[in-house]
Amino acid sequence: EVVMEVLQGGTWLLPWGAGVLALLLTVVAVYSLRSLMDHCWRWWVMKPIPGISPCYPLLGNAPLFEREGEGFFKQLKQYFEEFRHVPLFKLWIGPLPVMVLYHPDTVEVILNSSKHIEKSYLYKFLQPWLGTGLLTSTGDKWRTRRKMITPTFHFAILTDFLEVMNEQGSILVEKLEKHVDKEPFDVFLDITLCALDIICETAMGRNVGAQENKDSEYVRAIYRMSDLVQRRQKSPWLWPDRVYVLFKEGREHERNLKILHSFTDTVIAEKAAELEKPKQGKCDADGNCEGSGPQKRKAFLDMLLSVTDDEGNKLSYRDIREEVDTFMFEVPRGAIVGFFCFPHLSLTTYRHFSLYLFPSFSCFLSPLCFPYLRSLCAAMRAAVGDSFFTWKQRTLPSNGQRFAQMEEKTLLALILRRFWVDCCQKEEELGLAGELILRPNNGIWIRLKRRPNSVS
């Protein structure tokens, strides 16, 4: 009887509950209406453009994508071959359309445009880690930040960085000594850890010893975070933040984010404390001070702590962390990609190297560099005919490009002065994985021989 009375007494709550639920659904529908209309409009406008099928409502082509990087890259290559006869085709990643351009006439419109310069929505998933630094920001903030930071990469500073590159490169060469005149081995991890040691010391003034301790928590967090971001980018059901944290990947993302930001915050605080100490001796415009002790090398972080805008305002701690984390994310990957875009280049002789070591990407496109590239350029010419266009580069090379080019040249010089390098893989054996960078899943297998009269 008591139970029945309680149930009867609670029946008056049902209309109220139904009303509240109806109100919530109405609010959600109103807020979603504009997004739904925008999606329908984009779908209608792009309907004539050929695309991948099947294409599912709201999810697009995302359920078709391979989860692992190597399978995903092969899948994209298949799509490219399938649609090669058309100027462009589309992919839908959830509600986001992605255009793939082929013909030079269509590419030219984008590259020479001063209007279509906004960063893709997919950059949003880097922001929890990198904030809105040079890589992820746009508009006025990007212009202001670039104007502040670019002068810090003048020739004298890069010369200081060169000292670090030579020190870490020498450690790498000594590690490679044990492989001379022996069986082929995978050099990819060795190069990766060397690049990481270089960037940590030049960016933050902190030697993490990655070449000696590859199990460093910070090192693991950098590479795991890259994997998590790339997986999230191609999985639209993981895009909402509140949904993402309910999944195992979302919780792992938060753990690695704390490791990365905690490390950077600690180093920034230590550097800021050093700058607050009374300085003895005279200091020049670059912050190099005269004193009795040995002169300490300046890191990218030191410069960020002292740089100001046109009105004399310094960067906040958050701004500094954004740029340091961005530099840590971009540069090692660019250098590694530059090393291994064409494994055949490792067949070059010391003479070829000394004559034709140009900045990485222009070198790869020059038919004068190496015999292999002549056949590559011939194949490209056969594929596109005489379709070329002029792309007027509007900005100077990025800070990361300057740094990565110097790093590539330094490490290559150290390696090729001592060893003959023979690549033991064909291009199709690399197992290229389409992640945030293009990475060889099967490593880079080489064989080393000592050069006669090598310079130690």
TrEMBL record:
**Bilayer-spanning residue ranges:** 12-33
Q: Which family does it belong to?
A: Belongs to the cytochrome P450 family.
Tell me the lineage of the source organism: Eukaryota, Metazoa, Chordata, Craniata, Vertebrata
Protein's recorded name? Cytochrome P450 4V2
**What UniProt keywords apply to this chain's record, in alphabetical order?**
Membrane, Transmembrane, Transmembrane helix
Molecular function GO terms recorded: heme binding; iron ion binding; monooxygenase activity; oxidoreductase activity, acting on paired donors, with incorporation or reduction of molecular oxygen
Q: Does the keyword Lipid biosynthesis apply?
A: no
Gene3D superfamilies, per this entry? Cytochrome P450 (1.10.630.10)
Cross-referenced PANTHER family: CYTOCHROME P450 4V2 (PTHR24291:SF193), CYTOCHROME P450 FAMILY 4 (PTHR24291)
